[in-house]
From TrEMBL:
It comes from Geoalkalibacter halelectricus. This is 4Fe-4S binding protein. It comes from the Bacteria. Its main location: membrane. Residues 60-98, 140-177 form the 4Fe-4S ferredoxin-type domain. The chain crosses the membrane at residues 64-90, 111-130, 136-155, 275-293, 318-342, 377-397, 440-461, 473-497.
């Protein structure tokens, strides 16, 4: 694996802490600009449309089109690279230096809080339509900034990223597939290192030279914000690529280099709480993907709709039922056939003579349990889930991405909307790519994602317990992949090819 840090110019630039500080500061400035551009804007006086600024205002356009959707392409290629420049994580880290430095309680150190945060955002979309109104989007961004600051003042490390940032959890899933990784060069060098400078976070003297002038000060070495030890890293799911360990290592023993795609699959299963997050992500992506196929959409939403009618609830009551249905019950039903195939494959029946009186019966083999099995079953599905996310992002950017020059020229979006839709002095920008080309690209992506899921089965076998059936696991994964690929493929066929 070639070390990018050894490349003459690129390595020196990437090692520079000032590069990353500058990028974080730039992203923070853009975040503040988005908040300011959307804070006082919702509608346009005299315009009947309830949400005229949905795609022309800077806040809604950059956040819901380019960030929520576009950043998935960064995750595909570079894993959690966005976390290295995220302004919220940076504010969290800066606040940590002045805060109480309390360790995160064990009952919070899992994926349940971030799963609830993802559900909270989805409920806000359902009930408040925050994605349609710049003022609500700006308030969401401001709330995230305040929460990042508050978490930093109380807890050590990047607590906001662990507790309240669904994007970080999503990137953790996708980072297992990306073709880049940060690892130690030699385990022997790490074993012989006495001070563990890469993770110790102790005091250190720093020196700044400007010509003949020298400035020394007593600072604190930055430790890993997610408490990783480079020598013990087995996958890239948690590493945020902050490069603190690279800057601290006195032995130059960290390597950033390429690896095969799907490189971290099979190292370990998903934990129970991360499996829960995966189910919520699978459900939300599936209902958003299939909403363009009316018949299938009605079929998927039939259960909460009928339940709301039986209970006599109005539309708000339907949304209360729709959220748990889409986020938990529907993805569980989608994975249930594959789970049952795997579970039934473990059944063994044999004819044996009855035990004699006093004989000790053999102990039954311990079963991994429902959530552990789902954690194993979910891992080979990550490539297909990433593919669905990429398809949704490609469609959104293809449809609305051409508005970006207008948004940058008019951050409020008012003049652009009036010019395009009222006085008609400006033509509405079209698609970035024709539908005839886009549909074949989407079909090819779905085929590639399904194939990647099939190829993921073999490395994932290494993480299975010895007591379970390997063939049953493969059959269960193939069953789930066939069900999901059929669901998404039918939607694409009806949406783009039969019009």
């Amino acid at each position: 694996m070639r070390n990018v840090f050894d490349m003459p110019l690129v390595g020196r630039v990437l090692r520079s802490a000032w590069l990353w500080r500058g990028l974080r500061l730039l992203c923070l400035a853009v975040l503040v600009w988005m908040i300011a551009a959307g804070w006082h804007h919702r509608g346009i006086p005299g315009v009947a449309a309830p949400d005229p600024l949905m795609y022309t205002n800077l806040a809604t356009h950059l956040f819901w089109v380019w960030w929520i959707m576009g950043v998935v392409f960064v995750a595909l290629l570079f894993g959690r690279l966005w976390c290295a420049v995220c302004p919220l994580g940076w504010v969290n880290g800066l606040a940590t230096r002045l805060g109480l430095q309390r360790p995160l309680p064990a009952w919070l150190n899992n994926f349940i809080p971030v799963t609830l945060a993802l559900l909270g955002v989805q409920l806000a979309v359902y009930f408040l339509a925050i994605h349609r109104f710049p003022d609500l989007t700006a308030r969401l961004l401001a709330l995230m900034l305040v929460l990042a600051l508050a978490c930093g003042l109380v807890f050590r490390g990047h607590a906001f990223c662990r507790l309240l940032c669904p994007a970080g959890a999503v990137f953790g899933l996708y980072a297992r597939l990306a073709p880049w990784q940060l690892r130690v060069g030699s385990q022997d060098i790490c074993a012989s290192c006495a001070d563990q400078a890469c993770v110790s976070g102790g005091r250190v003297w720093r020196r700044l030279a400007l010509g003949p002038a020298l400035l020394y000060w007593h600072g604190r070495r930055k430790d890993c914000p997610v408490d990783l030890v480079p020598a013990q890293m087995t996958d890239s799911a948690a590493c945020t690529l902050c490069l603190h360990c690279v800057h601290n290592c006195g032995n130059d023993n960290l390597i950033l280099g390429r690896r095969p795609w799907l490189g971290d699959l099979g190292r370990t299963r998903l934990s129970a709480s991360e499996t829960l997050f995966f189910l919520v992500l699978l459900g939300l992506l599936t209902v958003n993907f299939t909403k363009v196929y009316p018949d299938l959409r009605h079929l998927l939403w039939a259960a909460p709709e009928q339940a709301a009618i039986l209970l006599g609830w109005q539309s708000s009551g339907f949304y209360l039922l729709a959220a748990p249905w889409a986020a938990l019950l529907l993805p569980l039903l989608l994975m249930l056939p594959g789970y049952l195939v795997w579970r039934l494959s473990d059944l063994r029946m044999s004819v044996q003579p009855p035990p004699a009186v006093g004989d000790t019966l053999p102990e039954p083999q311990a079963d991994p349990g429902f959530w552990n099995r789902l954690g194993h079953l979910a891992l080979p599905l990550v490539p297909l889930v990433l593919t669905v996310h990429i398809i949704l992002a490609a469609v959104k950017i293809n449809t609305k991405g051409s508005l970006l020059p207008l948004v940058l020229h008019d951050p409020s979006g008012v003049k652009s909307y009036l010019a395009m839709n009222v006085v008609h002095s400006l033509p509405t920008p079209g698609l970035l790519m024709s539908l005839d080309l886009l549909k074949w690209l989407i079909a090819a992506l779905l085929v590639a994602g399904t194939a990647a899921g099939i190829l993921s089965i073999r490395p994932c076998l290494a993480a299975l317990p010895a007591a379970v059936s390997r063939r049953g696991f493969a059959a269960g994964v193939l069953t789930t992949l066939a069900l999901l690929a059929g669901l998404y493929g039918t939607t694409i066929l009806r949406w783009l090819f039969i019009r």
